[in-house]
Amino acid sequence: MIIQCSVENFLSIKDTVTINTSTLGLKEKDANIIDFNQKNYVLSIGLFGPNASGKTNFIKALGFVREFLLNSNNLQIGTKIRVTPFKFDENTRNKPSKFDVIFVVNNIKYQYGFSCTTDEVVEEYLYYYPKGMPKKIFIRTKENYKFDPEDKKILDDIKLKNTVNKLFLATATNWNYKKTEPAYRFLTENMNFVIDYIDFQRKTFDLIEKGDKKFKSFLINFLKNADFNISDVDVKSKELSTEEIFKMGILSSSAVSNNLSTVSGIIYNTNVYHDVSNKKYSIEYETESLGTINAFSLSSILYYTFLNGGVLLIDEIDKSMHPLLVKYIIEMFHNEEINISKSQLIFTTHDTNFLDLELFRREQIWFVEKDYNTASTKLIPLTDYSPRKNDNAEKNYLLGRYGAIPYINESGDIWEE
What span, in angstroms and rounded, lies between the C-alpha atoms of 271 and 292? Predict the structure, then answer.
């Protein structure tokens, strides 16, 4: 579970922006919350705002944390860190980008953060709260380290294996230091990102072909509940020879076509079965709508998230799917019979249908807007506007009362030179 995450000087984010999942004691929708240490946190957060406001960049910031940790141990000395600071200010171009995440693993609170440039990790730290009070695991400022005294001897040896462009959290975990493992695993395995639904298509195919009955049942029930009228799916894969790959014109391992979804030289022939007028009909997967394909692809990561816990971050959750289907997906996270691990959802959207105080608590709605003077991203919670529980949030938003709307110049002459 994420409690709070902050980002500074990354892509369109200049000054520190923070999302906090804590509730404010508002009495509403207990189904949308999770309890930890007698405090309540929301199960989902929606980020609303216009195009180019920076919604995706906040998701990418947390994705960068994950990818840097995963790839850290593979970096050679001198390899650049692939971080991009805010570039619309001469003062920020060469300053470190900063990231901080407060989260819970196995009922223990952790705080992990770091700052870095393209050349080096400037600062890094990890705290945990085993008895409710913060306890240092490590603090690092460039190549100077401070450790918990009881583990100093072990960590002094491990730090010699780290380099200026690597994260010590990854290095320590790689060398079997047990106190860093829960934090590392949460940030790399329990934060999952959906930028494009099709990225999870292969995982869905593999689970079906391997005969995972629990997943198959989840998938069919999900599709039926979403009114797709699909009763079954079968998948058969075939590994392609180099000659076959060449003949098909597949130029990269990421090439994907719907029915013959090709990854690493494997094609998946998939048939979907529909019950119509008491008869079962089979059609090719490629003939399904993009919305159906997106829902099909998304099912595997939903299944994994509900079973294993953690946080699912989806960019543009409404892509090619009906608002009622998206609402159903959001409500799955609020349903304790489905969301058995109390996983969290953080998503971005342009769809104002979801500015619904019947669907969300007031603490679950956040706005993202671009400062037109600095071109930097700002995050503003709905609660900053002191809304009432029965307010029409969608109407108020479209009227501009919360900001974070595009300024369309309808009278502008697009042919003017």
Answer: 13
